[in-house]
Amino acid sequence: MNHFITSEQLKRQLGKVVIFDCRFNLMNKTQGQEQYRTGHIPGAYFLDLEKDLSSAVATHGGRHPLPDTETLSKKLRTAGVNQQSTIVLYDDSRMGYAARGWWLLRYLGHQQVLILDGGFAGWIASGGGLDRREPAIKSGNFKATPQKDWIVNREDILQAASNFTLIDSREAKRYRGEEEPIDPIAGHIPGALNYFWQEATSEQGFIKSPEAQLQRWNDLTERDNLVVYCGSGVTACMNILSLEMIGIKAKLYPGSWSDWCSYLSSTSPSA
User: Fold this and answer.
1) Which residues are catalytic, by number?
2) What is the DSSP pairing of strand 165-168 with strand 87-90?
């Protein structure tokens, strides 16, 4: 299955697909919305990571809990999403946020989801046009059917740790606990392997070939019962996509490290 669309292909599909702008910046949480208003791909609606692709933060559950199913479904319907719509997502962060949308939509049962290869910068470089207008509200008929066996929680991991192979998608310094710029405790879940999510794409935000994805995971000996996590269940979706490109299925731990470490005291070993 192809998970990507090029800028040239998208130019020919404008008006025929539903487009979502997923730009976001964890360190400046209004930046994505501001960039969208400055200029976006014609016809694109905006999906905010924290307002649309996540739910409210609680004591546990991580920094970006999965969104309420009906709330997100309603948002999709107002963009005209129907059961058979083809959806295109893009960002400017090497697909990190678009991949969250890609995973979520498929988790909700919608399979025709593509990510713009090269993202917003690739679109501009290809001579793609921009629009500042927000598209009109529409009336789609999308109805969610969550794939609940696609996710695991902390209790699942604690009860069946020996059955899972855990993949930590953060950069190596955070995995090793040498630094932690966001969460209160540094480290990783015991036994987890480290595969940095950005290695799936080029620095310009283009997806690497299936052969390169295969090479990424070449030393992964256990390929069943994979559980992928990151800081808060967002960029982990890029590793799930990378694995899917080579025919390997993996589950997501949505709460990820931010949920896991919320149960640890500041004096506990963070492994």
Assistant:
1) 230
2) unpaired
